[in-house]
Amino acid sequence: MESRRIAVVGCGYVGLTTGACLAKLGHEVSCCDVDGEKIARLRRGEVDIREPGLGELVAEGAATGGLRFTRDNRQAVSGAEVVLLCLPTPMGADGDADLGAVESVVGDIRALLARGAVVVTKSTVPVGTAERLGRLLGREDVAVVSNPEFLREGHAVEDFLNPDRVVVGADEPRAAELVAGLYSPLGARTVLIDPVSAELVKYASNGFLATKLSYVNDLAELCERTGGDVEAVTEGMKRDHRIAPSFLRAGPGWGGSCLPKDTAALLRTADTASVELPLLRAAVRANGHHQARVADKVVDRCGGDVAGARIGLLGLTFKAGTGDLRDSPALAIARLLADRGAQLRGYDPECAQLSAVAGVRCVGDAYLAAEDADALVLLTDWPEFAELDWAKVAEVMRAPVLVDARNQLDPREPGRAGITWRGTGRTLR
Ligand SMILES: NC(=O)C1=CN([C@@H]2O[C@H](COP(=O)(O)OP(=O)(O)OC[C@H]3O[C@@H](n4cnc5c(N)ncnc54)[C@H](O)[C@@H]3O)[C@@H](O)[C@H]2O)C=CC1
Ligand SMILES: O=C(O)[C@H]1O[C@H](OP(=O)(O)OP(=O)(O)OC[C@H]2O[C@@H](n3ccc(=O)[nH]c3=O)[C@H](O)[C@@H]2O)[C@H](O)[C@@H](O)[C@@H]1O
Q: Which SMART domains does the annotation name (predicted)?
């Protein structure tokens, strides 16, 4: 593999993982970020996101000199053969992806890029962005390549180093080969396509995952009405290799920093192209319904009214294994309960430093969340919740009621302590 001089712009989940992993593969990487404090911490070897293995890779990169950090985007990109844009593309007005950061960086660096440099969108960007950035750059010698990232939070390093595929969307074979070559030591399947299709692969994949989950959550509701058990149903479904075992766990609806914003952006792209995408639209609508269903179950268990009731929440992040609260279903459900007058106390192992979030008072352990509660709701399946002493939980609660939105627990465990358990799509037999 040829070692390349790479600039990574944006040191978040994607940028820091990409920079550290590419340095590990032998490239010379300069990472930059507007957040000066983050850069200062990274220079001290401090990684402030919860990603197994990332701290070690950052330390290794610093020790070999293959990974450097700067606050100055311009310094990072000058002399780079490849510039990877790992900038935020949050949900903007009407659900569109907001390309403000991406466009402003491209405007800033256009005159500084080395001759023949390649600019790569690793951020999730809508169809047509590569072409648009090409025009903004106004440089005949600089190609723009789409190379979407598919890593999951909490598994960022593992996913980056073992990708199911590397997608490279380019109009020019030279640029395509250069970008694909960065990953060649990984031995991954490489999909070389045009930039528009590459941009679509990313949204199509997240849209498919969101639709799969909404379907499973719809099935969970059907199980509740018919006496079925969604865990048994999905166990049977996942043995079919065409369906595949992952993304079949019913829960409190999907969330996180990407599925909600990417489904919204894909629907906007469809609107602009006058295409309906009815399945995806229904999947998004169903997700709001499934979040509301969790809140309704709690209200139901509290006798139809939660005004003044004390509700304990177990888990606040959008899934276990991450400290990320962006678009967390747990917080959406908390807001629904707060709107109905509930007083909320929540515990999450990753939120110990917070005093409050989304109307939830944060406490230091699960038993404090359960104290004097009229109901307890398990919203994020952190492993430690499976180890709780349910007799102790029952003892401190005002009413021993548990809504396990993730189906994390064996219902017999809280049951033995006299706690009434209610899951998602499960019928107790
Ligand atoms: N978080 C994830 O699991 C994945 C995210 N993506 C996509 O990757 C992109 C980045 O996402 P994350 O890494 O999660 O975002 P993030 O919010 O964790 O990190 C973005 C970083 O960019 C920096 N930044 C903002 N403006 C800047 C500028 N003008 N110059 C330099 N740095 C700047 C921020 O300070 C921040 O450190 C988004 O488009 C996202 O949709 C794609 C796959 C996975
Ligand atoms: O574009 C992105 O940023 C990333 O978005 C997701 O990754 P991530 O946001 O880290 O989270 P997931 O693990 O996909 O979970 C998303 C949501 O679905 C929920 N989920 C997931 C799986 C499941 O079986 N059941 C379920 O309810 C999770 O709890 C969470 O709320 C995709 O899985 C990544 O491939 C993609 O790169």
A: UDPG_MGDP_dh_C (SM00984)
